[in-house]
Structure to design on (231 residues):
């Protein structure tokens, strides 16, 4: 079936460290891929997206590349800040559907950055 | 543009009561979805409304219901509350139009429901 698998957290890093949060997916067709971020006490915010293979999404220093051959969409940032502490969700939207019911979220990865 | 707003932000109810949560989508968005977020189950899809019609429903009991008004505002209702209904309820709107659109979800801050 269709699914999204994220690396388990929590992930704890020091400020200015390099970040990778792994995300792999299983889906029929060619889904769109997303990373959402949830800061404490808030709802989810779209961080970046990619709609086709080899697309790179980027925002706020974060990047992720849609790799069809490895069915992956890993999130990376070269130098994290304390303000990046949040929960990160990888998600996919199944192709050919317009419904939100066809969006599949990963379980989330909690990231904590030490000053 | 104003973001998605949800009211109330916090709610405490007792078992057996019923509750209504409200969501106002981003202006121009016609799709509104509801999610339940808990530490154990993560983010679970409840239902989606598009142009006042429920388009899809997740795997939740009939105690969970919703509706959408002509101005796209949405409400969800939970009757006969159980302790396990304690969660953060998130509403999201989307600019999708029919089969087109980017499928991005814009989330509100959520309503934290505690059932005692």
């Amino acid at each position: 079936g269709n699914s999204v698998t994220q690396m388990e957290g929590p992930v704890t890093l020091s400020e200015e460290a390099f970040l990778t949060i792994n995300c792999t997916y299983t889906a029929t067709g060619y889904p769109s891929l997303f990373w959402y971020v949830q800061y404490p006490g808030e709802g989810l915010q779209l961080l970046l997206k990619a709609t086709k293979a080899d697309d790179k999404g980027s925002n706020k220093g974060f990047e992720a590349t849609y790799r069809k051959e490895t069915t992956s969409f890993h999130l990376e940032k070269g130098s994290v800040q304390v303000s990046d502490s949040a929960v990160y969700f990888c998600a996919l939207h199944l192709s050919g559907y317009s419904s939100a019911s066809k969006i599949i979220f990963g379980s989330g990865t909690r990231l904590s950055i030490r000053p | 543009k104003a973001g998605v707003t949800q009211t109330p932000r916090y709610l405490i109810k007792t078992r057996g009561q019923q509750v209504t949560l409200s969501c106002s989508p981003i202006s121009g968005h016609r799709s509104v979805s509801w999610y339940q977020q808990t530490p154990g189950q993560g983010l679970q899809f409840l239902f989606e409304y598009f142009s006042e019609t429920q388009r899809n429903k997740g795997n939740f009991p009939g105690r969970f219901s919703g509706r959408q008004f002509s101005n796209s505002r949405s409400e969800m209702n939970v009757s006969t509350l159980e302790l396990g209904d304690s969660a953060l309820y998130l509403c999201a709107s989307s600019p999708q139009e029919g089969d087109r659109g980017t499928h991005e979800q814009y989330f509100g801050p959520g309503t934290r429901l505690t059932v005692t």
